Amino acid sequence: MSADQAGRTPKGKMMGVKVYMLDDQVQTFNVPQKCQGVILYNEVSHRLQLLEADYFDLEYLDEKGICCWLDHEKPLLKQVSAKDPRFRFAVKFYTPDPGLLEEEYTRYLFALQVKRDLASGDIPCSENTAALLASYIVQAELGDFLEEEYVDHTYLSNFKFFKNQSEDLELKIMEYHQGHIGQSPAEADFNLLDTARKVELYGIRMHEAKDHEGVPLTLAVAHMGVLVFQNQTKINTFSWAKIRKLSFKRKKFLIKLHPEGYLVGYSKHSDTASKIPTGYYKDTVEFYFDTRNECKNFWKKCIEHHAFFRCHIVKKLPRNRTRVVSRGSSFRYSGRTQKQLVEYVRENYVKRPAFERSTSARSIASRSYGANKSNTSTLNSNYGHNSTSSGSHILEQSPKETRDTPSVASTRLVEKAEVHDDSSQSASAGSLSEKSPRSQRTKAAVDNTYDSPPSTNKQMVDRKMSAPVFSQLHHPEIEEHELSRSSEVGNIPEILEEDEERTRHPRFRSPAPDYQNISEVAEAMREEAGVRERPTFTTGVQPERSEPIISSPKENGHVSPLPSYSDALEIEQQRSQVQSVTTVTTTTTTSSQRYIQDDDEPEPLPPPPPEPLQEVNSVSPSVARATKKYPADRAYYIAKELLMTERTYKKDLEVLTVWFKDTWFRNAASKEDVWPETLMHLMFSHLDPLYEQHCQFLREVEQRLAFWEGKSNAHLNGEYRRIGDVMLNNMEVLQLYINYIEKHEEILNEIQNAQRTNRKFETIYKEFEGQKVCYLPLNTFLLKPAQRLLHYQLILTRLLSHYNNDHNDYRDCYEALQKVKEITSRFEDQVRHLENLQKLVELQRDLVGIDNLVQPIREFIREGCLQKLSRKGYQQRMFFLFSDMLVYTSRTATPTLQFKVHGQLPLRGMIVEENGSKMDVANSFAIYGGNRCLMVAASTQEEKDKWIEDLVEAILKAKEQGDEKIKFQSLKSNASSEGLDSSDLQDDQTAALSGGEKQIQHRANTTMHVCWHRNTSVSIHDHYVAIENQLSGYLLRKFKNSNGWQKLWVVFTNFCLFFYKTFQDDFPLASLPLLGYSVTTPAESDNIHKDYVFKLQFKNHVYFFRAESEYTFERWVETLSSATQSAKRTRLFERLESSQPPNMIYPQ
């Protein structure tokens, strides 16, 4: 259905349509009587805010009692009666892999459908399986099993899981329920779907028919093809790959097979097997229905299932209504295919607000959505089902499709989101405060830095907050933390009321769009990235629009103002004159605004802008600041880079020495023996002196830059236009760095031991990692001091390259560089070892199903996404290459979105084969390890080359190692888990999710998740390059729909850009992972007429940033290129120069 057709809403008389929802509620929709079915479908989707709407549809009973799906392209009144139109909202396409469902809400709706099917008997299964399914329903609705409350099975008597529910079944359900302790409702839903999908009749709807000899059969259609049943037993399957054409003629349903034929025999277990010839080939199979309408209805369902699961894209062919004599049905599937839906969701995904879960399962399916036949339609059957008595549909195949599986798995999946907004995790009143522990001692430093009115408490935000059910009911010890990070309830308009006195203040009557963009950088960037909030369906009166003066809801319920307008915008001036500009206003408001938390005290002014910039936005001249002249010396900008990165380094140290220590102090005050005293003493006895010395060094650098910029008469003396002496004086801190690096591995090991032996410490540790101030994994902050020395070395090297030998700053810089080099060269191998250890620890946390990943001799080499061939076709898998093994995983659909290990291959004896005859996918190659063979495909030729090169090099090194070094005991099961039964998979997942991991939202900007979404890979070499290229400073970001520029504090680290309002913010407002992006200068078509602008682009996501000087511009482009453009290395085996045949076999 085109957007044009979907958007047309005919005018005229309205009618009320009742829709029975999956939670058994009845909702009424007012639609025009003459509208097409797609109008009603869109209304339902919008009200539910469904992103993955194509899995669902509306069904109804026709006058003959046949259950039909809504035809989107047919008028509504040609399908149901206008007297009492009723529909039921239901799952239409049962996906075989619940992991493909991105949204928790979609999985929740699927779970409701499974509950309904279980209660109605549509999922026949054994008692054990039925009890297990019911136990997940109980876990999702009631939470953990409580022995003091649930004394016996009678607490289940209010639930109606099955038609014939006995006490024995309830006892089994209770037994399974006891084993689900710790699972959140979302995890219980996923486990319910994962168990249900393994039931043979999951999603199967039977249709009675007969074969050509009159033998009673039942037909069904599913994701794999057309199924034939006899007495509830499947006796045949016609897969999509073998079907050439589907058609019907009156009551006869025909399946035309490909010329090579298809085996049309029934099972030997069939009661009528003796009547039916077996083992013969036939190119057309016929079945007969009782009526033409039943035949056509099943044919339409087959057409839709084939299009959704099998096709890459469906051609939009308009229905021909001009023919006098019809040549058959013109029905075609009009929605998205599963491949299109997966790509659409990953490009347009945005975190859904918390939704209210229904408890309707206790009385599910208690009433019928259908009407009596006397009250339904008076239309004849031909009118209700089109006028044709026959139809056909040729099943087109993709050129690359040669297997019997849905093609959605054979295509790579694109990114999920471009910008990850942390601002949506605003804390509500009374929740756990994230106010800085150092606020009292820093208040004086930031007080009265600009003229602005004090904060008032009269601003109100009409916004409801909700917390996960499990954190309220069963986890009181973390309830406050969970509440502070909960999502906001959808469909609640944000009403901002501002104090009347503040409204009259001239400094706060600035243009609304600027305030909106300053406080909503994440929302603006999400909009550009194509990740928008879905529209909210409303039926009431829209609130009156007003000029939004954005403020921030604080943890204590108070609201503080934003900085003044002149401080929020970067004021530019051309070299010749100052432009006069006008004020621009707007009244646009959105129903999906996000709020950014501000500090309680006013923030100091950011550093003044450089000289060669022009005015950013529309501001009255009375507000503009006077232009300041800056030194043009390149050494000044190198020193300024030192200052900017030192400010970020200070914030990173404070995560450990202020925030993490404060958590320790609060725990000590509670007199709970949770934190190991040895660990705390070991950590802070080395970090605290470093932090104190660094603060002193930062003050000296700030003072020197202030003199250099001419903020005092000291600039008249040239001795202040240098930085080498300040750095040389700071070299006494090197001994503190030596002590810390020597103890770093011991600190990391103590943390790991404490997490293994002290469950309470592990919980608090992971809860701290979930706070917004900890924007990277905590172990990453422990590495920052060792990495800082490398940056000092780079700064001093650049200064020496710029200076002449006779420069007054040359000697100090040279001496300081020699001292830093001595330390960096001395500890180079140890630092590399620590970085590898930190990476292994991070992977150990995020991989489910593997133990003891951290080994002394194991080295990380590469992680990335490849397509792996399985029974379902090529499916996306995440691969991890280590020095001794290759591990492949798939992402789970749990809230933490961890990766479940499916198998591993040892590198000893491994063979890599390229361009085999069996491979029909571009950029594919084979990996042979032991008695296993993996057929994989990379996204590009370059990715393939990287994997093959690293695999070959790792195989050669593993071959050189002795057998005593080969340890292969880390995986819980050496065999691939893709072939295990359901109980094994379930036990592994339950065990993996029973810890504290499920309480912490996953960090979507880590390299693992970014590689998954963008189908790329990262090597340890790339990590080393990224460590040497960390940068921070102020940049101007161009607004999408205007010529304005917004000033942001930007930090680049770990392949990701983090955005702040100022360098004093405690946590980022948004983040932008850069893997896969390109860094270029704007093209002429971009219409950017400014200097020092660079362009970031990934597919259709484009951002423009502006630096303050030529040096800063070069540094940002150089640094970002290190993350966005992977190093292109020469292949160890160059195909063009090799004398080997095309089918190359690498070392074994």
Task: Tell how many strands the DSSP assignment holds.
Answer: 34
**What is the end-to-end distance?**
54 Å
State which percent range the strand residues make up. Answer: 15-25%
* Secondary-structure content class: alpha+beta
Fraction of residues in helices?
Answer: 25-40%
The poorly predicted ranges are 1-7, 261-281, 360-387, 398-436, 438-629, 968-1002, 1127-1142
Structural Rg: 33 Å
Task: Tell the overall outline.
Answer: elongated
The assigned CATH architecture of the domain at 860-1004 is Roll
What do we call the CATH homologous superfamily of the domain at 860-1004? Pleckstrin-homology domain (PH domain)/Phosphotyrosine-binding domain (PTB)
Q: What is the CATH class designation of the domain at 860-1004?
A: Mainly Beta
CATH topology of the domain at 860-1004: PH-domain like
Total number of helical segments?
29
Mean pLDDT: 72
Structure description:
The protein is α+β, with helices and mostly antiparallel strands and 1148 residues long. Among the domains are: 126-196, Acyl-CoA Binding Protein, CATH 1.20.80.10; 860-1004, PH-domain like, CATH 2.30.29. The protein has 29 helices and 34 strands. Strands 19, 20, 21, 22, 23, 24, 25, 26 and 27 form a nine-stranded mixed β-sheet that branches. An eight-stranded antiparallel β-sheet has the order 14-31-30-29-28-34-33-32. The longest helix has 36 residues, at 634-669. It is elongated. 41% of the residues are buried. The model is unreliable at 1-7, 261-281, 360-387, 398-436, 438-629, 968-1002 and 1127-1142 (pLDDT under 50).
